[in-house]
């Protein structure tokens, strides 16, 4: 990665972190404060992104929404990746029959489209943030798990491991000291790409009314509220939508800078 | 179980406007729409110059509904408003409402009640046929009421409406007598609703799945086919007989060849489709689009539903709302007027009544509901909620003043959800913590059945003031086997119970009015309810559509007089 | 591996996958706290009548031992009996049969459109200069990042409400398909283009390509003759994934554009907690995915019989 690219990536990550962790620095207002007499104000100097149906400031809400939206994306990705590491590692290090079984399970998970999987889980649990995270996490796990498995398999026969085996280390220590860290590197790129997708899927669930409930300033929920007023107040839909696109684009750019390829998703 | 599974779209359009436009529309449309409009309740209609256009026969109208597609087209089964909207085209009721809100015969020719009020005789018009060729006879009344009362039908709305009918006897071909368990002055109102509409007895003998896809009635249209998720296709009933004839449309059938009844749940898509002319009429119109309809060259029909107004009920059976002071404090703390004005763009008129503005016996008292945060604070101090915690919420004995508010995304339109969010913020200012839970319908019913609510909005559509008994009699706090109960405010008041029973049994109109007024006062003055606005029922139609305005007793439009520019 | 063995292996694998999906759903229904009959009928608050609950118990043999229930359940699925949708009161297979062609058609058209767009973008990118290529790159990434639900709304506002060029909902002319297809195809095209470009630059930078260039073949000709094949292969192998992502997108797109289809059925089934319907659709889409995967692998085998095994 070039020096400029590194700096750019760090800057972008820094900006998102700032929005997520200290939104008040960029938007000192209260994202939930209502002002019914100021409803549907157009974007302008008083309200950069306009106001919504209850007169809440959309700029403030978009900035404060970064925390919720990114947290959901990160949590879902973490869940998916955690599961993937467990399944992928076991599969890679197991005898062939167990590997086959896990592969079939992964394929079964993979066979159900992500959003359908999410809806399936929500059909059982009912809507909410928790189920949305679980749903998105589970549906991304198989993709990650395959990569983990193939990474570990290719490393398994590498010299490093042979050396470790010669030295008589146990399987677990081998995994901990060599396999897992080496498999993790390319995964980092993939995870970055995945976070963008997770944010989109989580927003899609909120948009369908199955994720974060309003008035929380989550981007998908804001879009869901905004679509009602699409004909009157386009700004209610535009800015949260742009925020989602911006996160997904940042994630893709950083992921690619880290050497990730879209196809692994 | 309950009626208004989907009430969407909110109340009156700008009151002054709506009043005048309603009169205007009525005056202009009268010669044209004739008896039907006169005999059905008319609703406010503005927009296209209906009065100038000359009726043309032909064309298929495309209707786009925002409601969920019903699982059964027979409104006897279950019984919700989306079913009523479509069934009003192919089923008719024994009675209907005239423009003054008076109940008049429709399929029935005349009716009388015995001295003791326990026998109701209904005589039908001669010469009316169902679309399957069966003749309308007294036997049909008997079969339909039995169908409603049959547990296998799983009727809830219609079942409750004919609750006092013990049995039906056929006296002669056109006369039936209904034997009642106790006098019921609301029976004719009950029989005016689409949920008790008369279907062909022969068709009712088919299995339920079949009857659900093609109910057979006497209406101006009939069901030709139902392509799930796509459309219900209605075609003209060429043998239609207007039960109450009038000069202009004496031997008429509908102008339209048919109606394609589509389901487009996305409000923005529905409106875009209307704008671009792919559909002719939409329901559940969003307030902002209604407000700009005239500028967009669209017609608007405002038909508030009868029965209860939309209101928030305060659960008085448990803390903190078991204390009247706390109930009043909540009601005084929120500012409904500003929110309703902004969110509904003047299309919904604020209500101070338990009943819909179309109910002549509704009693209204604005003084009880003025916003007064100072008073709210004083009341809460008096009620012992005088401490505040770190987040600014009031506490009493270390317990936070917290209330749960499950909101159904089916029952509350987006504007209403936003209004509740505003209430949440306003109530916080005096120290209430309001926890809003947006729930899908089944979770919402679940929360109510388990008493996991302090506030709830659950509108109920029914013709006539007898809806008050359903909603506020202490019997309605007793859950049905399913866990459902209609008295969400949990009002238990002996005096009120007596008034409601008496009001339903009296034969004296003036006494009935006075009893219902006393009953409404008790509920309003007890601060069990925060009235908001009528149950909204707005329709928008393209400028090529004329003759929209006639409705059934429950304010569902009938498109018998409607025609399209060719 | 000969073709027959390959087919046998695929079918066997597919059956195992379907069995796993079915079993997971079976276990999930039992894991929900409370009465499974109630869960089947829509959960607490659905106010299912005692009769309906009894019917569900009978249909799912809930009074039998769990293992019997499981075998009966699998037996029914094996005969394509997914039960009766409790919200629509019709056999699940019938409902799916009615709406499935819509979704398949929409997805196939979107897939074709996405491929077409991706090919055009890639060819354009070949000719663009350094800056143009960078801009193109960014545009692809943006396209891939746009959520369906947002894109659909924006397209309706733009082309239907504001410009009046295209209908928002189907009006019988087929024009109603344009916006839904675009909504589904644009993000996918973004993905495919990124993918094709990665392999394209590899292919065009390869020894073979350099030699061809040295022989004086034009870049564009080389792209068509050589690069495309290399670029398309990895993208083709992703067709299964792409199709599956289209099915996800269809849930949203069918809701926005009011199109009948599997996605819309699923969404309303989820809202109604219609477990038989949800189960049926999930199993069915798994089946579709497996079939599409097998077909795309088959095509790969034909194009590239030597096949670097994946």
Overall description:
The complex is a heterotrimer of chains A (265), B (566) and C (310). Chain A is mainly α and 265 residues long. Chain A has helices spanning 3-21, 23-26, 58-93, 96-111, 114-125, 129-156, 159-166, 171-207, 219-227, 235-257. The relative contact order of chain A is 0.14. Helices cover 29% and strands 19% of the residues of chain B. In chain B, the strands form seven sheets. Chain B has an eight-stranded mixed beta sheet with strand order 1-13-22-12-2-11-10-9. A four-stranded antiparallel beta sheet of chain B has the order 5-6-8-7, with helices on one face. Chain B has a three-stranded antiparallel beta sheet with strand order 20-14-21, with no helix packed on it. In chain C, α5 crosses α11. The mean pLDDT of chain C is 79. Classes of the chains: A mainly alpha (265), B alpha+beta (566), C mainly alpha (310). At the A-C interface, α4, α5, α8 and α10 of A face α1, α6, α7, α8 and α11 of C.
Task: Please give the structural blueprint.
The complex is a heterotrimer of chains A (265), B (566) and C (310).
Chain A: H1 3-21, H2 23-26, H3 58-93, H4 96-111, H5 114-125, H6 129-156, H7 159-166, H8 171-207, H9 219-227, H10 235-257
Helix pairs in contact in A: 1-3, 1-10, 3-4, 3-6, 3-8, 3-10, 4-6, 5-6, 6-8, 8-9, 8-10, 9-10
Chain B: H1 15-39, E1 44-46, E2 60-65, H2 81-87, E3 95-97, E4 103-105, E5 108-113, E6 119-124, H3 138-149, H4 157-161, E7 165-172, E8 175-180, H5 187-190, H6 201-204, H7 208-213, E9 221-227, E10 231-236, E11 258-263, H8 267-275, E12 281-282, H9 287-291, E13 299-302, E14 310-314, H10 324-333, H11 336-344, H12 373-382, E15 387-388, E16 394-396, E17 399-400, E18 402-408, H13 414-429, E19 433-439, H14 441-449, E20 455-457, H15 467-472, H16 494-505, H17 509-525, E21 529-533, E22 538-541, E23 545-546, E24 563-564
Parallel strand pairs in B: 2-11, 2-12, 18-19
Antiparallel strand pairs in B: 1-13, 3-4, 5-6, 6-8, 7-8, 9-10, 10-11, 12-22, 13-22, 14-20, 14-21, 15-16, 16-17, 23-24
Chain C: H1 3-31, H2 36-40, H3 50-59, H4 66-78, H5 92-127, H6 130-145, H7 148-162, H8 178-204, H9 207-214, H10 219-237, H11 239-256, H12 262-271, H13 275-303
Features of the shown structure:
heterotrimer; A: 265 residues; B: 566 residues; 8-stranded mixed beta sheet; 4-stranded antiparallel beta sheet; 17 helices; 24 strands; 29% helix; globular
